[in-house]
Each structure stands twice: as C-alpha cells, then as structure tokens.
Amino acid sequence: MTLKFRHLLWAKLILVCFLLPSVTAQEISTPHFSGFGRIIAGISQYDDIKTLNYTKNLSLKPNSLIAIQADWSLSQDWSATSQIVGYLDDEKSSGIEWLYLTYQPSDSMKIKIGRLRTPFFDYSDVLDVGYAYHWITPPSEVYASYLFSNYDGVSLIHNYSNDLLSLSIEPYIGRFSGIVTQDGRQSDIILDFIAGISLKANVDKLSLRASFNRGNIGGTTPLFFPVPLTQLQQLFSAHELSHLIDEIEVKGRFDFNQIGFSYDSFNYFIKGEVTQFKHQFKVMPQITSLYLSAGYQFDDYLIHLTLANREDKLKAMLNPIGSSPALAQLKTTYQQLISARVVGDQKSATIGIRWDLLKNVALKTDIKHIRYSNKVPHLHDSSSLLLLGLEWLF
C-alpha cells in the first residue's frame, strides 16, 4: 500500500471513531477476546519441490500459528474488530490480519472499513482457522498463494432470508500492497485497486457461492527474474528494444472468478470450487483450478477424500533480439527469463481423517499425492506429502 493511501485509510478510521453517534464511555464494552491456534507438522517425499513447502525432514513450518481476536461493541450500531496472527515461520509476516470498524444500521446490513479479508473463496474468512474445515490445508491447486488474503478498504454485506432460502451479497473495494508467492517464487506487488462482489445462497442443506473480482496492478517487482526488472528495462531501452518491455511487465488489469457449492447433511457432505485467474501478463500463466471433496462423519471422526486439478496457460513471448555480439548477453538474459516462467499444472488426491478429540480441539491427518504434468520443470513425475495437525479454538 502506498503511504498516501495508508495514511488516508487510517485518517478515515480515526475520523469515524470521533464521529460515532452518541457513543459514551458507558456504551463501549470491554473487549471480548477469542483465538485459535494450530500446530502442523509435515514431511515430503522429496527435498527439491518448493511448492510443497516441506522437505524430507519433519517440520512445523510454515503452517503452525496462533492468533487472538478482540471485538468491541462501541454503540448499538458500531463495533470494532482486531485480529493478530503470529506465524512460527519467520518468512511469513506476523501481525495484523484484521482491523476494521463495523456499522450495522439494521439486522440485514453491515458496512465494514479497514483491513479486511479478501472474499475470493468459500473459506476466505476462516483461512487461518484450520479448526473450521476438514482438511489440514485447503487444496493448494485452488487456494493458491499468489492470491493475497486481505486488503485495505470498504465492504458492504446485505442479507435476506425467508422460510425457503437465505441470500447474502457482498460488494467491496480497496487496495493492497505486499509480497505474494507464485509457485515458490515471490513478487512485491502494488494494486491500484481491487474490487468485487460475492453472492451466496442457502437452500436447506445446499449452499451456492460465486465471487467476481477485478484488480489493477500498478507496479510489480518479480523477485525471481534473472536480473532486476528495472535493469532489464534499461537494457531494452539502450538497445532500442523498448517494445519488449511490455513482454515482461506485470502491470494492468486482472480478473479472478470463483463458483462453489456445498451439500452438507448430518453425517456426510460433498463440496467443490472452481476458480479462474485471467490476465494479459506474459511472464505468468492464466490459471483454471477446481476441487471436489466428500466426507463421512461417524461419532467424533470424519474421513474425507479430495480430488483437485490445476491447469496453466502461458502466452507466447516475442524474442526478436538479434545475434550480434553486442546483444549476446541481453539475449541470454531474456531467454533465461522466458525459461524461468513457471507452469504449475498438477492433479492431486488427498485422503484424511479428523478426530474431534475435545470441544474446540481436533486432531487431523492428511496424505496428499500429486502428479505433475510434463510441462512442470520438476525432476519428479509425482510426489507425496504427509501432514499431521492439532487445531484448537479458545
């Protein structure tokens, strides 16, 4: 986030606090604290597949964490929420995940302003709360790390219900700045804006959800480039190859859309999501992903099976650099960049079991087997991952 936008956002939050109607010291409640935690141990079949985030040595990173949330009632209509998450993994940014004010003028409407969770997926609001879902981690084919989990902005939530169904609509708009990871490689991005709308309908045991999101990337520094992006751009300009700058820039509009469903009976469920990431950038792929998951509950145990798939498509990149000695180094560097583009095509099957050991405490085990397409630059056609988890609420 730019300093200007950050200062503007916090200025608005402070101003709203001063303008809260009829708020007295007696009306502001003491904060209600709650929290959650997870200890996740994992081990992989191989050491050299970075996208799995685990190696052949058992590790508690990167998914172990603890979080605390505070909720204040400021008046009849206003409340405040803050959530702080601490990760065991030093490479993840511990700190404020949520920090927002809520204005609720009626039972059917809420307006939130501050740092909010980006509503990309069915499980976006509880992505860090492993106790809230059956896997240890949601399918990485769909819940990809290149999608940021929060944004700074405003959202409106409107609910409607009758005897047959309940509906929810959530439009939002904001901005984001930070590090995102694409298939084990990082980029520092700035979004001029991110906006979208999510729709959800519940009819008896069936839930349907769709989200449509659009953003504009104002600037990006892909940290995995063979040379810094600005240096490569300068080289292009110096050799009168400025038209190639468009080939390597990650700048402009993108769309991310999602459709999900869930049928949850008393002792079994089936659910799935389909997502599509579309853009015009040439250094990263357009991605279509999906998963289908089913589970059966008996007593305090839940067994489940999930099938997932991801398909990537890369656009062709121009390479009209001549073969003269003066351009040899530039041509080599540019070719390295083309070759460094990542394709993450894969299919996976995950089988797991969850045991609700105590109230608000669950033990989990997941075994995931992944098969990679021949477009993926791994030394292995497939790999396996074992995860063990302890999840709790407090």
Descriptive report:
- It is a single chain.
- By secondary structure, the protein is mainly beta.
- It has a single domain, classed as Porin.
- 11% of the residues lie in helices and 52% in strands.
- The chain has a 16-stranded antiparallel beta barrel with strand order 1-2-3-4-5-6-7-8-9-10-11-12-13-14-15-16.
- It is globular, with a radius of gyration of 23 Å.
- Residues 14-19 have low confidence and may be disordered.
TL;DR?
With 394 residues, the protein is mainly beta.
Primary descriptors:
394 residues; mainly beta; Porin; 16-stranded antiparallel β-barrel; 16 strands
Query: Structural class of the secondary elements?
Result: mainly beta
Helix content range:
10-25%
User: What is the name of the CATH superfamily?
Assistant: Porin
- Computed over alpha carbons, the radius of gyration is 23 Å
Tally of distinct domains: 1
Q: Which CATH-level-2 architecture? A: Beta Barrel
Largest sheet: 16 strands, antiparallel, barrel
Succession of helices and strands: HEEEEEEEEEHHEEEEHEEE
Instruction: Sum up the overall morphology in one term.
Output: globular
